[in-house]
Amino acid sequence: MMSRRAWLIAVAALAAGCAVPQPFTDEFYAPMRVRAGATGAVVVRAFTDQRPGGAPSVVFEYDTPSGERRIGRATAPVGEGVAQAFVRGLSARGFQVTDETKRAAGAAPGAAARAIVTGRVAEFGVTMARSSLVTGSRQRVGCRVTVEVRDATGARRLWERDYQRVVEGAMDIHEPFHLLARALADVVEQAVADPELLRAVRGAGG
Fold it and tell me: How far apart are CA 60 and CA 73, in angstroms?
């Protein structure tokens, strides 16, 4: 359980971005533990943000001691920021990646490639909810996405799978955004190592 003083310090540090890499700066993304070896060309497009609330850049929600709900925002929409992580992961895997992360999944064809990787974001962010002076705070870091492989037109979905990483419990003052970065990296690593995703990408032009 986090003490009231520690919880207030954590909220203030995250809200101000002090010593914490903010999503989606370059410093935010965690290193990818990915083995190279894949080949081929792939386009990555923005993921669709399906999180509740409809605020595309909100990644931090917290309660003030007075019970008010406050938010913190990322430097880019979550759908774009998550897609950028997949650009990094697929590149590390060995693919020739075209970054179209500012374009929607179903947009008209852009770069020449056999497959488009995109998807949907169900959860991405940090929640720190103050329960009571007795029970302390509830803290959650979550990244849940559905990865899609589409044909080169973007119109036909060929394959999809869910990946997730969630951390709950007491956290150190500067941990939540670091844990969020690691959760995103874990999800990307799971996806780009998935043999079924690789088969779907290879088969997209067949």
Answer: 7
> Peptide bond preceding 24: is omega within 30 degrees of 0, i.e. cis?
yes
**What pairing do the DSSP bridges indicate for beta strands 96-100 and 41-45?**
parallel
Query: What's this model's pTM, rounded to 2 decimal places?
Result: 0.86
Tokens describing residue 56: 């595309």
* Distance set, CA 19 to CA 30, 73, 75, 120 (Å): 15, 16, 16, 30
- Number of Cβ within 10 Å of residue 206's Cβ equals 7
- For the ranges 45-49, 53-57, 94-98, 172-176, the lowest mean pLDDT is seen at 172-176
187-201 pLDDT, tens per residue?
999 999 999 999 999
Determine contact, residues 82/184, Cβ cutoff 8 Å: yes
What is the DSSP annotation of 54-109? --TTEEEEEE-TTS-EEEEE-SS-HHHHHHHHHHHHHHHHT-EEEEETTS-TTSPP
Please compute Rg for the chain using Cα positions.
18
Domain ranges of the chain: 4-203
- Provide the pLDDT confidence category of residue 184 given band limits of 50, 70 and 90: very high
4-203 architecture in CATH? 3-Layer(aba) Sandwich (3.40)
Q: What whole-number distance in Å separates Cα of residue 137 and Cα of residue 196?
A: 40
